[in-house]
Amino acid sequence: METLLALSIGVLVAAAAYLLLARDLPRVLLGFVLLGNAANLTIFAAGRIGTMTPPLVEYGATALAAGAANPLPQALVLTAIVIGFGLAAFALVLVMRAYAEFGSAQAEDMDAAEGPDEPVSPAPDQDPVPAQREAA
Amino acid sequence: MRQFLIVAPILIPLAATAVTALLWSRPAAQRFVGLGAAVALFVATMALLAEVISGGMLVGQMGSWPAPFGISLVVDHLAAAMLAITGLMGLTVAVYAMGPGAKERDRAGFQPLFHALLMGVTGAFTTGDLFNLYVWFEVMLIASFGLLVLDRTREQIDGGIRYVMLNLVGTTFFLLAIGLVYGLTGTLNMADLARVAPDIENQGALAAVGVLLLVAFGAKAAVFPLFNWLPASYHTASMPVAAIFAALLTKVGVYAIIRVFTLIFAHDQALFGPMLGIIAMATMVVGVLGAASHYDVRRILSFHIISQIGYMLVGVALMTPLAIAGSVLYVIHHIVVKANLFLVAGAMQQVGGTFALKRLGGLYAARPLLGLAFLIPALSLAGIPPLSGFWGKLVVIRSSLEVEAYVLAFVALAVGLLTLYSMVKIWNEAFWKAKPETAPEPPAAWTMTQRIATFTPIIVLCGVTLTIGLWTEPFAAFSITAAESLLDREAYIAAVLGTNPVQLTEAVP
Lengths: 136, 509
Description:
The complex is a heterodimer. By secondary structure, chain A is an all-alpha fold. Helix content of chain A is 60%, strand content 0%. Chain A contains four helices and no strands. In chain A, α1 runs antiparallel to α2 (25-46) and α2 (25-46) packs antiparallel against α3 (71-102). In chain B, 76% of the residues lie in helices and 2% in strands. In chain B, α11 packs parallel to α13 and α14 (321-352) crosses α20. Chain B has one domain (2-507). At the A-B interface, α2 and α3 of A face α6, α7 and α10 of B.
C-alpha cells in the first residue's frame, strides 16, 4: 500500500510539474491542484498507513483504542484541502478575468505589467538639443 | 492579562475584518472602524513588546491543550519586535489609505482585506507550530491576492496572475515539507521539533525537509532565484497596498527562515550556513542590478526590496550572535524605511502625475518638504550615517568580517554603493532636474484632509528612521538580546514544553 501511495504521489508531482510549465493558464492551475493533492497524500502517508480502524473514541472510553488510524494527518489534510480549494477557486476567477481582459489565457499574451520603462535620457542621436545648436 | 496580550494581535484584526465586511455598503463607517482597529492593534502590540522586554518570553497554549498536542503561541524578543513594527505599519498605512483614492479603494473592499492581511502577518509572527504557520501564510496570501487586484486594471490582473501562481506553488512546497517532517518526527510543534531534530536517525531526509522549507520561505521572502513574482506585481498595486506589501510580506518569509533555521536546523549549520550565504549574496546583487536598470520609481523600489532581503539572511548564514543581531536590526530598520519610500512615491505621483522618472521633475522646487521626506529614507536605505540603515549595515558587515567572510562583507558594501546610485537617480530625475515639457498634469487638487492623511505617516516614519539612527543604543541592545534568545534553543524549548516535556509514544502502529 505504501509503495502504491508513493508511486501515485510521484506520478502526481511529475504531472503537476509538466502542467505548471505550460503556457496555458488553465493548465497551470490544474498543475497546482495536482501538486496540492500530492502534498495532501504525502501528509496522509506520513501519518503511517496500514490500519482500517477509524480513529473514533469508543463510548465511555477516554482514549483511542490501540491500533486505530492516526487522526492528526486526517485533520491536517482536511484543513489543507479546504485552503487549497479556496485558493484554486480564487485563481480560477483571476484566470477568467484575465481571459476577459486580454482575450487569451496564454501567459505570453499578458504583457501589461512588465513592459519596458521609458529611459530617462534619449539616445544621443535622437537628442534634439545638439541638432538645434548646430543649426544655429 | 499576559494570556490575553498574546492573542490580542490576532483577535483585533480578526474582529476588524468581520465588522468591516459586515459594513460592506457603508465605506465611511468601514474606514472609521478600520482606523480604530489599527490604533488598537498598535497599542496592543506595543504593550506586548513592553511585556516581553520586562518579563521575557510569552507562551500561550491554545485551548489549554499542553504542548506539543495543541497549538502553542510563542512571542519571544524577535516576534515581539516584528509584531510591534506590524502594529506601527498597520496604523501608518491605515492613515495613509485615507488619502487620495480612498473612496474607490474602500468600495472595492480594501478595509476587510487589509485587516485580514494584518491578521495573517501577526498570526505568522506569533505561532509556535509549523502547520499553524502554514495556515497563517495562507490567510496572508489570500488577503494579499485580493488587495493586489483591488483596482482591477490590466496591469494588476497581469501582475496578479504572476504573483498568485508562483506563491501558490511556494506554499504547496511548504505543505509537502510539513508532511515529510511529520513523518520523520511525529510532531509539528516547533519547540518539540527543535528538541527531537538532532537525534533523528535519517538526517538526510531531514535536510531535504530543510531545503523544501527554504524553497517555500524563500519564495515568500523573494530571495534569489525565487524572486520573479515580486518585481512583476508589486508596482501594479495601489500605493497603500504596495507599501504594506513592501513592509511586511517578504519579511514574514525572512522571519520564518530565521525562526526555523535557528531553531530546528541549527545542528545542520554546516550544510545550510554556506547555502544561505550564497543565496544572500546573489539576492543582494540581483536585486540591486535590477533596480539600476529601471526608470520607474515603483519598480526601482520593488527591486530594492529583493536586494535588502539579502542583508537580512546574513545573520542566519553566519549564525553568530552579532550576525543575528544585525539581521534583527536590519529587518526593523528596513520595514520602516521601505514602507516610507513607497508612501513617498505615492505622494510624488500625486504631485507629479506619474511614476516615470523621465516625465517627473522639479519636485524639490515645488515641494521641498517632500524632497526632505524622500531623502531621509532613501539615504537610510543606502546606509549613509547617521541614519538607521548605516547601523544595520555596520553590524551585518562587521559580523561577517569577524568570521572572516570577506566576500560576503565586500558584496554587502558594494551593493550599498549601488543602492546609493539608484536613490541618487531618483533624486536627480524626479526632484532635481527641471520639470520636463512632457510632464503630465497632476491629478485633481487634494483636499486638506487628504494631504494630512498622506503626509502624517510619512513624517512619523521619517521620525522613526531618525530615532533609530541617532539613538541606536536601545535598538542595538534589543537586537543583541533578541539574537541571544534566538540562539538559546534550550530556553525556548523549556519555555514552550515545560521542563519535563511529555514524551510522545511511537506513532508507528
